[in-house]
Input
Amino acid sequence: MKVLVVGSGAREHAIAESFKKSKKVQEVIVTPGNDGIALYFRIAKLPDFTSYIDFVKKEKIDLVFIGPEQPLSEGLTDYLEQHGIKVIGPSQLAARIESSKAFAKKLMQKYKIPTAAFKTFTDYEKAEKYLASCTFPQVIKADGLAAGKGVIIVHNISEARETLQNIMIEGAFGNAGNQVVIEEFMIGWETSIFAFSDGKSFVSTIFAQDHKAIYDGDKGPNTGGMGAYAPVDKAKSYKHFVDEKIFKPVFKAMQEEGFPFKGVLFAGLMITKRGPNVVEFNCRFGDPETQVILPLLKTDLADICQSILDGTIEDLSLEWEDGYAVNVVAASQGYPGEYRKGDLIEIAPELLETQDAKIYFSGVKKSEKGMLTNGGRVCSVMAKSTSLTSAINSAYNHFLLLKFNGKTYRTDIGKKGLY
Ligand code: AMP
Ligand code: GLY
Output
C-alpha cells in the first residue's frame, strides 16, 4: 500500500511515522511536508487540487490521508472522491463541525450534546446589546477558521466591545468574523480525545492533554500548542460518558442531517463540575495531541483507515501500548507574536538515530549551512516510557540534544498529569 499524507507540520510527520510502522505500507509520501520531514520521507509539491489527480495515478497511491482543516474545509475529500481516489478525511459539509463554530454549536444544541450556553450573531449592534446584558467573563469566538486565534475571553464590557469591534468591524480574522459565537465561560480543566468514524459507528482513543499557553503554569498568550502528553489518568473515568453523551450523538446527528462524518474527529473538552462539556470539535487529528497519541497506538493505522473506508469501524477495537508519551515543542523566540527566523538548528546525531525519542519537524528550512528555523513552532521531541515521570524526564533529556538561538519552550509539559 502506498499512502499520501497531506500537510506540513509535526502532526503530519507523526501521521507519516505511524503509517510507516505498518507492514502493509510500502511507501509514505508527504505533501507539501517540510525539509525536516524530508529527512525521513519523500515529499511532493502539489500546488492545487487538480495536481493531486495525476500524481495519485502516476504514483499508484492507494490512500490519501488529509491532516489539516484547511483543505478539508475547502472540499479536498469531495474532490478526490469524485475522481475515484480513496481518502481519509470528512467531506466539506461534515468539516463544518470545525470550520463554523456557530454550525457546531447549533448542532450540539439540537442534539443535546453538553457544551457551554451560547448565542450567535451576524449583526454587530445586536451582539453589543446582548453583551451589555451579560455577566462576565464571556467568551467571544469568530465563527470561521482563524488558525486557533479566534477565541477571546473578555472580562468586562469594555474588553467585550473592543473585541467585538476588532472581529466584526475591523475584520481581525477576515470573513471568519462575519459571525460570532458568544458563550458562557466554563470553569474546569481541559483534555482532548479523538474518535475514528466511518459515518455510522466510531471508536475513540485515549485522552491527551495539550499545553496551549506559551509560558509555564499556563501563563501568557495561547499558541498552537507547546506540548502534550497521553494518556491522562484522571480523564479515564469520563471515557464512557464521552463516548455515550458526546461521540455517539454527534456522529448520529451528522448521519441524520445528511453529512455523515468519515475520518478523525477531535473533541476538545472542559471537565466541569457538571461533567465533560465540548469546547470545540475539530474535523481532524489535533496538534500536538497526535504526536503523543499515535506513538502509543498499537493497532495498525492502515487497518483503521481500511475500516473507515469499508464501513466496519464497529468491528474494530483499538490497542494501546502501556506507558506514557510526552511531546515538548521548541518554538522560535517571540512566538506566538512576531518571531525570529533563520537560526541554525543543531541536532545531535543521537537524537536522529535513537529509538527512545523521536523528533517531529514543523517550521524548518534546509540551507547550505544546515537546517534553519522557519516557523513559530520549529520542531518537537517525543519520548515514551513506562511512567509519566520517566517519559517527562526522557523527553526533556532528549530535548537538550536540540539547539538553536532563541529556542523557546515550556519546562512543565506533562506535569499536570502527575497530580
Ligand atoms: P477553542 O479554539 O474553541 O478550542 O478555544 C481555545 C481555548 O479557549 C480553549 O482551549 C479554552 O482554553 C478556551 N475556551 C474556549 N471556550 C471556552 C469557554 N466556553 N469557557 C472557558 N474557556 C474556553
Ligand atoms: N490541539 C488543538 C488543535 O489541534 O486544534
The first strand starts at residue 2 and ends at 7. The pocket of glycine (ligand 2) is lined by residues 148, 210, 225, 282, 286-287, 289 (CB under 6 Å).
